[in-house]
Write a structure and sequence with these properties.
The structure is a single chain. The protein is of the alpha+beta class. The chain has one domain (about 5-200): SMI1/KNR4-like. About 35% of the residues lie in helices and about 25% in strands. It contains 5 helices and 10 strands, in the order αααββαββββββαββ. Strands 3-8-7-6-4 form a 5-stranded mixed beta sheet. Helix 2 packs parallel to helix 4. The chain is globular and about 45 Å long.
Length: about 200
């Protein structure tokens, strides 16, 4: 099975699980991003995306998180951080990945370059992250392109800024999606009411 096949199969399973919940999550996944748009995004950022991110974008170009009238439901549940804070996320499309990654780089230079981060897992503070989610909170879900020596390129890292923490969540995009699928199936994530959208999270 190719990486593309594996990611698309995982996303198909993910969609089935989301629709089976009570209440169901309605993600508004977008059609696939073109190979050219992915290449152009890499050129704008001056880096190469991990192959699993390319496969994810080739399967779904993120979510239509907000139409101006209504929100899509965030597919990434509210994950409990060590401090007890909870954050939820939408999957970003190619344009949002570029915009948010450039913004994070600017924040790194202006605010976070010399900041001491509490690190949980094999990562470190640097400017070679790719933001692959959308959130309304003071943190990001990132793909790590320069992990510490015992980490993996493309691992999923949560960056929190209130307080400053870097937390390795999964060692790849595929393992992160599988973590979400398993979490929803096992009822690790519970329904949490919100006036804008259906949201699940860790209690």
């Amino acid at each position: 099975m190719t990486i593309d096949d594996r990611i698309c199969a995982l996303m198909a399973e993910f969609s089935r699980v989301l629709s089976s919940l009570n209440p169901p999550v309605r993600p508004q996944f977008q059609p696939s991003a073109s190979t050219d748009s992915i290449r152009q995004a890499e050129e704008k950022l001056g880096l190469c995306f991990p192959e699993e991110l390319k496969s994810l974008l080739s399967c779904h170009n993120g979510q239509l998180a907000y139409t101006g009238e209504a929100y899509a439901d965030p597919v990434i549940p509210s994950l409990r951080q060590p401090t007890g804070i909870h954050s939820y996320y939408w999957l970003a499309g190619i344009d949002e990945i570029v915009e948010n990654t450039l913004h994070l780089r600017s924040e790194y230079e202006e605010c976070w370059k010399d900041e001491e981060f509490t690190v949980i897992g094999p990562t470190r503070n640097h400017d070679k992250f790719v933001v692959f989610t959308v959130t309304e909170n003071a943190d990001w879900l990132l793909l790590d392109l320069e992990p510490s020596s015992d980490g993996k390129v493309g691992q999923v890292v949560m960056q929190c800024t209130q307080p400053c923490e870097l937390i390795v969540v999964a060692d790849s995009v595929a393992s992160f999606i599988q973590l979400l699928v398993d979490g929803y199936k096992s009822e690790r994530f519970k329904f949490q009411s919100d006036r804008h959208f259906v949201m699940y999270g860790e209690v």
